[in-house]
Each structure stands twice: as C-alpha cells, then as structure tokens.
Amino acid sequence: MQIEIINGPNLNLLGTRQPEIYGHHTFEDYILRLKNEHPLINLVYYQSNIEGELIDRLQQCEANGIILNAGAYTHTSIAIADAIATISVPVIEVHISNVWKRESFRHHSFLSPYCAGVIAGFGLESYRLALLYFLQKLSQ
Ligand code: DQA
To answer: Is residue 133 among the annotated active site residues?
Structure first.
C-alpha cells in the first residue's frame, strides 16, 4: 500500500515557522516516526512551495491515497481543487492548526468539496489520523 503525503507552501519550514502554531518538530523527523510505526506502508513524502508543482504531483500520483496539506493554497487555489476533482486517488485534506479558530480568510477551503474528508487542529497528529483512515479503509 502506498500513501503519499503532499505538503504545500511554507511547510518546509516546520520546526522554525511560528512554532506556537505549528510546533517545534520538523516534518522530516515526524515522517520518520510514522514510517517506523508503519513499516509495511510505502509512505512517500513530497513538498513544494509552487502551486503548479503541487498540481503536477497530484496528477502523476499513483498512490492508494493522498494526504494533502496545501497550506495557504487551500484558501486560494481553484486550480488545485480542479486537480483533486480530476484524479481518482482519494485525497484527505489536513491542517496542523484549527483553521476555524484563526483568521476568517482561513475558514474557507476551495479543496474540501473534492476531498474524502478534512482533518484539522491536531498538530502534526492530523497526518497520523488521516493515515489511520486510509489504513482502515484500504484494508477492508
Ligand atoms: C495550514 C493552515 C493554512 O491556513 C496555512 O496557510 C498553512 C498551514 C495548517 O496546516 O494549519 O500554511 O494548512
């Protein structure tokens, strides 16, 4: 089983970016832990700050499921929404922070209508919760 985690803009800076919101851990450390806990899952990680690169990656993805944190593009990108609507791989939208507790411009997502579900507000554990969903769903 292959699950791909795709992170969007500024998420390469996890660990140092606004740690009061996004925590003190780098994503590289976190994904190592997830990989160690799930040795039978082929967990692939991709990050880009560029909208078109995220779209290319979504279009090319051959995983069984995608865990997507599109960062600020969540609130702006009809093009990423179109890509999610086009592909057949199920996508879970995740956010580290609880976006509904924050500025109102973060309350709207162009992506959610095309995603299997949305997980937000659990810190980096949002990714683990999404992974658990895929593990259960795909082993049925
Ligand atoms: C985020 C929330 C977005 O509003 C923000 O632009 C991000 C990160 C999150 O994971 O909480 O870059 O997606």
So the answer is: no
